[in-house]
């Protein structure tokens, strides 16, 4: 048996935390793109779009992320795609994030007074111009704090990717536990590292929210 | 060509059903105790002494900024090295209670802090004890105010309990896993279990919205009002 000092444990976890960060960024960026597309589809009022998107949101918010990860993992394998855990986890977390982000942002767009849309229309602005010059900038200001807050949820969500074999912080913790038989220390360190990742983000989101409230 | 065989999974419906029942049982227990913990912590954070406010604040921040699966593993795998041995079910319930308690504390606090000052003053002027002021005057409308958020959080915790299958608590995702290990229909078993989670989530949400005003923060009837 290899002897692990506390520093060895911590160092290895720290290395694995890179993958947690990487997966979070991929999922967040991908989720933002898909979520934005869904938002535009919903705002453009294509027939059936509103119902379709709200069903999509319902399904992703009403089922466990763990099952979504399994479905992506098994589903891609079924399609004959040679799945790495990276692809499955990236895809599942992207879709999951997109559902939450599109719902958050819809709320932000709805918070912009209706008169802004009507005024733009009376100025003969097109849908795109209204969005870009009138509604978008106002909605964006409202959207920043909850969006940053959601990032915390994504980081925590990546921990579930460990279950389909993606080696990130939690999986590394399990592996090191199996090598050292010191679950208490290892999982305490894992939790500490997650806290170190998430807490600054939540604190920042809270600060943004407070300063936003002060302005309005 | 992809061939899906849902019947192979559905014919094992007793396993799925008992898994769903187990998930509901875990969630119901965790919801009752967790909301209790949350209300106590919400009181502590908004009306308690300063040292308690700080202590509860640390608890809330620690739980809200770490993943549920790590909390569960810490309790199930980590605590035995301190001499605390737990069955998967008990570990699952403790983890869910601790998790829900932290989120519910923030929600309850928001509700309690929304109480108009005059309510406190009016209740005290009627010579109610501090305990009565809180449980009879402050808490019911506070819960009514934040009930939608609380219901959402309970549903989130129920969906999160899918992770408890990883420590072999025999809930719904564990049942799906068991079925696929018997017939290798992994995708179908997962899809069906996922659909069942969706139904559970919708059902629990509907039930709580119906039950809340009736049993939890409703006005007492027949009090000569």
Task: List strands and helices in order, with pairings.
The complex is a heterodimer of chains A (216) and B (225).
Chain A: H1 6-43, H2 49-61, H3 65-78, H4 85-111, H5 114-122, H6 127-157, H7 169-180, H8 183-215
Chain B: H1 6-10, H2 13-47, H3 50-64, H4 68-78, H5 88-113, H6 117-125, H7 130-160, H8 172-183, H9 186-216
Structural summary, described in words:
- The complex is a heterodimer of chains A (216) and B (225).
- Chain A has one domain: Orthogonal Bundle (MetI-like fold), CATH 1.10.3720.
- Chain A has eight helices and no strands.
- Chain A has helices spanning 6-43, 49-61, 65-78, 85-111, 114-122, 127-157, 169-180, 183-215.
- Chain B is an all-alpha fold and 225 residues long.
- Chain B is 78% helix and 0% strand.
- Chain B contains nine helices and no strands.
- The radius of gyration of chain B is 21 Å and the shape is elongated.
- The A-B interface holds A 58-59, 62-68, 70-71, 74-75, 77-79, 152, 156-157, 159-160, 162-163, 170, 173-174, 177, 182-184, 186-188, 190-191, 194-195, 198-199, 202 and B 2, 61-62, 64-71, 73-74, 77-82, 155, 159-163, 166, 173, 176, 186-187, 190-191, 193-194, 197-198, 201-202.
